[in-house]
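Morning!

This is the sequence you dropped in the shared folder:
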Amino acid sequence: MTQRNVSKLRLLLREVGPVDQVGIEERVQKYATRSVKKHSKVVGLKLAVSMLDLTTLEGKDTPGRVASLCRKALRPHDDPSVPSVAAVCVYPSMVKHARRQLANTNVRIASVATAFPSGQAPLSTRLAEVRAAVGDGADEIDMVINRGAFLAGELNLVQDEIAAVREACGDRALKVILETSELETYDNIRVASFLAMRVLRTGDFIKTSTGKTAANATLANNQVMLDAIRDHYFETGVEISMKPAGGIRTAKQAITFLIAVKETLGDRWLHNSRYRFGASALLNDLLRQLEKDRTGRYQAPYAFSEAAGSY
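The structure's back. Tokens below.
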């Protein structure tokens, strides 16, 4: 990183304010001590279901596999009180197959793009991928930032690329994946969050992870980003949405993440237009907990069909 680029990073950090690492970690530890029981727990479990992005991102994906995932997204459980999930997320080549299954439903179609998960392709190629997914019917685009450029201090380049993808999305929602585990520090996560949010619109997302690295969403990284969203909202009035992705596998974890949202951003963000979980493996545990509340008995994990991915 050149001295000039170091200065740009430090300047933006001074502008948005550094992260109190000890304070963040103490705060998220307290979320886990909150007790949510009975009716409130059931409400929280169903809310978490409604916030899920079910995902399949494998080389062996087929139209049939996507169709199966779409059916699960529309009807996660036989109990009609259990809502549909928020979205199905697929590679661009599978968008048209998801569209056949989900047209005229409330389940949205998301597609990863911009050379997911590395982001290491020419910008023209990344933008072409976005336009193809949008053209085939994607409602949302999940892009990855160029982490190498960010860590090299090329902040203008990173922001210009996000802005170019935002333009290519047109009226579709954009989710900007920071890949927090590769950004190395809480300060970097906060700076990257602001860098993205300043070219995003109300209803666009910032997102922790691709789910393709060793470390994915953590409660602390999530909190750093929630705080950034709050501060940006107070400054601009723009309501940016949030998506932690990868590594959230249990209903208990999901409830804790929702507590963080409520205590940081309030009830307005407790909706799938403002908060999502990228955690397909989470769905079955949520359904097990709901079934336990309904019948008094836990079902075996294999009682529910497996979702395709964990992202």
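Headline: The domain at 3-303 is CATH 3.20.20.70 (TIM Barrel).

More detail when I'm at my desk.
O.
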